[in-house]
Structure formats: C-alpha cells, structure tokens
Amino acid sequence: MSIQVAYLGPKGTYAEKAAKDLAVLENLDSPSFLPCQGLRSVVDHLANDLCEAAVVPIENSVEGGVTASLDALWRHKNLFIHRALVIPIRHSLLSSGELSTISEVLSHPQALAQCSNWLNENIPNAVHLPTNSTAEAIRMVRGSQFRAAIGSKEANEELNILAYPINDIVGNCTRFVLLSKNDLKTEGNKASMAFSLKSNSPGALLEALNCVANLGLNMSRIESRPSKRELGEYVFFIDLDLNSRNKKAFSKINQKFSPFCNHIVNFGCYISSEIE
To answer: Structure pTM?
Structure first.
C-alpha cells in the first residue's frame, strides 16, 4: 500500500526535495507525494488522516524557527517527528527578463528574508511580494519582464538565472522534519519537546530548564511562541542531543517537568542528519 506524504507545494519546492529524501532515508513503502498550499494545510492533512506522513520545515539557520510549523505542532498534539534532514539552501534569482528590468521580486517570506541584503544591494527599488512557496513564485513570474522569483535553480525549467547564489549567508540551511501520527519513536540522536509553564513568575523557566541540566542532557535549541491565549504567556520548544549514555535520563524528563509545566508534548526521538 502506498504511503502518501504531504509537503509544501507546488512541485519544485525545497520541501519536495526534502520529502523525497526523507522518504528514502526512512524506507517508506511506495511513497507518493501530495503538494499542499500553505504549511498549515500540510499539517492539517496529516492530522485529519488525509495522508500518512507530512514533511515541514521547522528551522532555518538564518531566520530561525518556522513559526507556522511550530504552531501547528502545538495545535495537534498527536503528531510526532520520525526523522529530520538538514538541507543546504542555495537561492537563485529567476526571471524571463533581465536584472535591469526587475521591479518586483516574489518568493516565500523566508526566502525573501534570507536574501534581503543581496536584494537591497543589487535591486534596491524592487518591491518584495510574499508567496506561499518558492515554486509558486517561479510559476507566477513566467513570461514577465519586470518580475523575478527567488527559488531553487533545479526547480526552474523556462526562466533565466539572473544570479546564483543570492542568499546572504553562505551556510544557509533548513531543517525539515518527517511527521507521522500516533507513533512515538524512542530511538535517535535527537529529541524534541514543547511545554507551557504553570506560572509566569521570576525563575519559572529557569526551574524547568534546570531539569534538563540536572539530567545531564544538552539542549541544542530553545524557542518560544505565544500561547495565543493571553499576552505574556508562551510555549517553549526545545531540542535535546541524545546518545547511549543519556537516553535513560531522557525517559525521566516528563516526570521532572511535571511540577513546573502545565502541558508537556513529547514529539519523540529521531535521527537527524545532514546533506553536505
């Protein structure tokens, strides 16, 4: 039976490449790929049983956490991370016109932000227009002499490559995660969690994070997002490094967090790897 994997479409996005690479790494059985419009739609497809797996970007090395993905994971607490893959991002400026004629640049907001310095230096008067994905931007600029798109040169079939690479940071990369439903994994070199605190008081977050340190676990990432219930209330996302020595300690973390946290979500343990 084919496993359907949702990703941020249309075809030609970095997310499609990540989805196909993750499907191979995870040995998914006869995967088929379902492009969705918007990250929320990707996660909702999985949560509503319209597919068996989903791939979303969760963190960029330049712009930080992908907020739409983090918020969706907190909203659907029965979704788990099965694998992560870090993909290098090398943006191109693509158009049917020439660089001197460009007055509008279209792309996903993350891509626009990752290339903002280059755009300001080379086409400072161009208007930046956000789209749902880099591939959608490429489709929208075809045939235009004054519009350009930021996207992957591998996704381009008809447009001129006006410049490559144009990302501001050479080491720009994005971590994508493969999500599944109701299947918590317990093996891997990473673990991800989210939690909210019982009280917004001095030292409350420190007490929770001391639990991590006291268990001998290394926290490789922490990020906060508004709870969306009231001003000043936050949800915290953390990643932990796992190895054979501290795996047993990780199994105690929910118990240690309980006195300080209202809600604790364990997204599971998983293997995180990189494409060089």
So the answer is: 0.83
